[in-house]
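Design job #97: recover the sequence.
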């Protein structure tokens, strides 16, 4: 989304399909928009990862690069590398 003379992206990842529902509340008022997520609780835990990307940081030049980062993060989190030593 536009932020002054740059762009700002937010992301929420809930592993293993534990995201029940989402609701985005958008308004034209500065800093008043919100994102709500309902997450399944398992073993008394609700696990989620939230983050943001800012175009001026130089890490994410485009919306696509931010989305690629989020998709790669989700793939790695849902399919962790497991190493066994013998």
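Job complete. Output follows.
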């Amino acid at each position: 989304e536009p932020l002054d003379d740059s762009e700002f992206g937010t992301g929420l990842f809930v592993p293993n399909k534990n995201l029940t529902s989402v609701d985005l509340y958008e308004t034209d008022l500065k800093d008043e928009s919100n994102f709500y997520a309902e997450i399944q609780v398992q073993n008394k835990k609700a696990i989620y990862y939230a983050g943001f990307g800012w175009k001026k940081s130089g890490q994410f030049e485009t919306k696509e690069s931010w989305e690629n980062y989020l998709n790669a993060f989700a793939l790695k989190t849902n399919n962790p590398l497991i190493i066994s030593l013998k």
